[in-house]
Known about the structure:
The structure is a single chain. This protein is mainly alpha-helical. 77% of the residues lie in helices and 0% in strands. Helix 6 (87-118) packs antiparallel against helix 7, helix 6 packs antiparallel against helix 11 (194-231) and helix 11 (194-231) packs parallel to helix 12.
Amino acid sequence: MSQSTIIHLGRWGLLALILAMWQWGWNLKPTLGWLVPTVLDPYFVSKPSIIFNRFLELSCLSLPKGGWAFADWSGFTACVASPKGSLWTHTLATLRNTVWGFLVGVTSGVAVGLLLGRSETLAKIFEPYIVAFNSLPRVALVPLIIIMFGLGDLSKVITALTLVFFVVFFNTFEGTRSVDRDLVNAARFLGASNWQVTWTVYVPSALAWVFASLSPAISFALIGVIVGEFIGSERGLGKVIIEAEAQLQIADMMVALIVLMMIGVSLVLVFRSVERRLLRWQRHHAERT
């Protein structure tokens, strides 16, 4: 049996074990006593079967009166277009704001990191301000951001941006500062302009540092959006979680959490795939392909 097969079997087997314990573990509490942790109480984490049924209902795949939505297309469209919103509309809102916050944060972080990384003077001028702002918990800024930009999508994008920017900036800055000076001197000796030196020497050298920050950056972007939705939002998975918590609907809360986890994992896998393609010239990436 190959190592790849063993890894996949181990992963799926562990998932099956977790789901089985989650579904039926609490039923063994009277028999096993303290061996069954209290966290498995359905009051706290519900059960996979209940969560799956609520997922079907919240995503309009099954109708409250029973049956599949595909058998009654008008019921499905009415559910999706309802003023309260369906799981699809909330997920789309969170995903859209996360992607925009991530893209703007990464772009600005890379640009500022390259600029300050190449200029010692600018780096020393802006250093105290960057350190001061970075030391401020960005979550504490969320109420102010919402007051300034409202409950709409813009406040969520800006919240995500403030979290992503510094993660990407510091990696880009350090990657730019660690460029081999011999490569820079060689490029200048061959007649390269400042722009050509930046594009052909600094950017490729800092690229590995930038990609190393993308996985945590996408997580921070998602965190920023969700925190913004917690405090005030018209739509989004954060709003679903807050409303479920207020009504003690644990299954609804778990549905939103699982969807968030799936979004985060999917985005990380996408960026890892892009990273392998763009950095295939590096040894450890070439060995994986």
